[in-house]
C-alpha cells in the first residue's frame, strides 16, 4: 500500500489516546503520514490544577508527548476554547467567549479543511453523531469534521467510536467488584457510542498496545483530579495482557459503507 495521509481530529488533548492511539501508531509504523488536530487545549478539564491557560499549556505539552510516542508527523490546535462540562453532563454555564460548542460550524470547518487540503489528506477521523459519551465538544467535532471533509473533498471519513455492546457488559460486571469514580455513570453508556451492528471497521491494534498505553500515560494531568481515580488512571492500572485484550481493538463507522460491513484497516475500501 503506498503511503497516504490520515488526519485525526479530536476535541481535547487525551482524546486521541483513548479512542484512536493504536490506529495512529499502526499507520505511522506502516509509513503513512499521521496528523493530529485538536479543537481545544482542554483548559477546562478536571485536574489537580485550576482551569485556565496554565492547564491548557500543560495539556498541550502532554499532547505533543503523546503524539511523539504514536509517530505523528504534525500536531495542530484550532485554538477554540474548551466548552467544559457541567456536573450534570451538559455545557458548563461559565464558558469562554470562543468556546468550541459556540463556534460557527462553517468557519471552524474551513479552518480544518485548510489543513486537510494542505496535507492532501486521504482520510479524516471524527466522532459519531452522539460524540461518543455525549460531551458537547465531541458532538461539535462530528459536525465540524463532517463539513470540513465535504469542503476539502477528503474521500474517507471514519467516525471513531466504541462497540457499546461488549462495553456495557464489561462495565456492569466490573461495577460489581469496583467502585467507579463519581463522574463515571455506567447508565450513560446505554446510549453512548455505537451499537455493534452499525460498526464497519474493527482495527486490531494489539501490536501497538505499548504505544497506546504510553500515549495515555503522557496525559498526567488527566489521571488525577477530584476525590478519586479518574477514568484514565483506572485504565492505566489494567495489567498488560488484559490491557491488550480490552484495548486491543479500535472501532469506526464509515457512513458510505453498508452497516455491519467488516473492515480491518482504515484504508481498506470495503466491499465492492
What can you tell me about this protein's structure?
The longest helix is centred in the N-terminal third of the chain and has 18 residues, at 53-70. This protein has one domain: 3-Layer(aba) Sandwich (Rossmann fold). Helix 3 (53-70) runs antiparallel to helix 7 and helix 4 crosses helix 5. The protein has a seven-stranded mixed beta sheet with strand order 3-2-1-4-5-7-6, with helices on both faces. The chain has helices at 15-19, 21-29, 53-70, 105-119, 136-152, 164-174, 209-218, 231-236, 240-246; strands spanning 5-10, 33-40, 74-80, 123-127, 156-161, 201-204, 249-253. The model has no long low-confidence stretch (mean pLDDT 88). The chain is globular, with a radius of gyration of 17 Å. 44% of the residues are buried. Helices cover 36% and strands 15% of the residues. The protein is of the alpha/beta class. It has nine helices and seven strands; from the N terminus they run βααβαβαβαβαβαααβ. Pfam families: PIG-L. This is PIG-L deacetylase family protein.
* Distance separating the two termini: 18 Å
What is the total tally of β strands?
Answer: 7
**Which regions are unreliable across 5 or more consecutive residues at pLDDT < 50?**
none
The biggest beta sheet is recorded as: 7 strands, mixed
Oligomer: single chain
What is the domain total for the residues? 1
Radius of gyration: 17 Å
Shape descriptor reads globular
List keywords for this structure.
alpha/beta; Rossmann fold; 9 helices; 7 strands; 15% strand; globular; hydrolase activity; PIG-L deacetylase family protein
